Amino acid sequence: MSTTILGIESSCDETAAAVCKDGKIINNIIATQSIHESYGGVVPELASRAHQKNLIPVINEALVAADIKMSDLDAIAYTQGPGLLGALLVGSSFAKTAAMALGIPIIPINHMQAHVLAHFIEDPMPEFPFLCLTVSGGHTQIVRVNSHLDMSIIGQSKDDAVGEAFDKCAKLLGVGYPGGPKIDQLAKTGDAKRFTFPHSDIPDLDYSFSGIKTAFMYFLRDGMKKNDQFINENINDLAASLQGTLIDMLFVKLKLAAKREKIKNIAIAGGVSANSGLRNRLLSDADKYGWKVFIPKFEYCTDNAAMIATAGYYHLKAGKTGTLRDSPQPRMSF
Ligand code: KG4
Ligand code: ZN
């Protein structure tokens, strides 16, 4: 039997919709909310309003591009959490209303699991079991993935996410929001060995990224005291050294996890997996440790609805659907 699923993503500052037919993504529509740039970070209330404004046009665009009508849908998958409550409410309210009107199943999806399942949008797909380093603006996780729906977090950040460290340090450098892509760009022509920043000392497979942000702040302050052009004159080396430290911190634990779990299939996912330094490091470590690595296309790293629709497909196939009583879960884990 053929299945057509609409996926909806509204957990943070991207309003997105995608149509998936029999596990194949037909389109992936995203409306990015540029309003947050002038505030230097996502403003939750403005995000909810922008979702409210953009959601129906984005869904309509996805349906038109797939040449289908709402009545052709067999199920609707939406992001249940984690994310901003007001933002999640917009997507989930639409999903529940539409599913009720159409009399079709509704599928609540965990956004972080969907980042992992973005690897199943297109070939090459990872073989099970694999480890996925899921790195975003809100989370940093090492996930052991046994099957599409059986996965567990074996290590994670105890405080800030690595994306948050990128964004906050970018703000200290005065390069604007979102900071990750800006640091990535600046780092391309910088010397990553020029400055050193301390690694956090956290046991097992967990991470901490709040210390580096503070260390970076004091480092910049001291530099500026001696030379008020310190940041301007050294911005590329500062970005490259910071990025290098963050990547080193990520890979120390990833390497440990691969050894401990005896797994050589290694994937990356989430917004920070778009970072060119991180992608290159994964490729060079693959050679060094004999890993088979999986790197998503750029469009499937950052928030999108193709990953939500794909996650919906695997849930529906397993008979795992939700109810109209499900509510958004801002701090959802798995
Ligand atoms: O997965 P995502 O789009 O949204 C969340 O679920 O949080 O991730 C957003 C995060 C932001 O912190 C952003 O700065 C970071 O991903 N990011 C990057 C790059 N592109 C996006 N960080 C480093 N380098 C990049 N090229
Ligand atoms: Zn995300």
TrEMBL record:
- Which Gene3D superfamilies has this protein been placed in? 3.30.420.40
**Subcellular localization:** Cytoplasm
Q: How is the cofactor bound?
A: Binds 1 Fe(2+) ion per subunit.
A Gene Ontology MF term for this entry? Answer: tRNA N(6)-L-threonylcarbamoyladenine synthase activity
* One Pfam family recorded for the sequence: TsaD
Might you give the EC number(s) for this enzyme? 2.3.1.234
Q: What InterPro entries does the record tag this protein with?
A: ATPase_NBD, Gcp-like_dom, KAE1/TsaD, Peptidase_M22_CS, TsaD
Q: Which reaction does it catalyse?
A: L-threonylcarbamoyladenylate + adenosine(37) in tRNA = N(6)-L-threonylcarbamoyladenosine(37) in tRNA + AMP + H(+)
Q: Which residues bind substrate?
A: T134, V135, S136, G137, G138, D167, G180, D184, N275
Tell me the cofactors it needs: Fe(2+)
Per UniProt, which keywords does this protein have? Acyltransferase, Cytoplasm, Iron, Metal-binding, Transferase, tRNA processing
Quick one: which residues bind Fe cation?
Answer: H111, H115, D303
The enzyme class is transferase
What CDD domains does the database record attribute to this sequence?
Answer: ASKHA_NBD_TsaD_bac
Q: Which residues form the Gcp-like domain?
A: 24-309
Q: What is stated as this protein's family in its record?
A: Belongs to the KAE1 / TsaD family.
Identify the PANTHER family for this entry: TRNA N6-ADENOSINE THREONYLCARBAMOYLTRANSFERASE (PTHR11735), TRNA N6-ADENOSINE THREONYLCARBAMOYLTRANSFERASE, MITOCHONDRIAL (PTHR11735:SF6)
Q: Briefly, what is this protein's role? A: Required for the formation of a threonylcarbamoyl group on adenosine at position 37 (t(6)A37) in tRNAs that read codons beginning with adenine. Is involved in the transfer of the threonylcarbamoyl moiety of threonylcarbamoyl-AMP (TC-AMP) to the N6 group of A37, together with TsaE and TsaB. TsaD likely plays a direct catalytic role in this reaction.
Q: What is this protein called?
A: tRNA N6-adenosine threonylcarbamoyltransferase
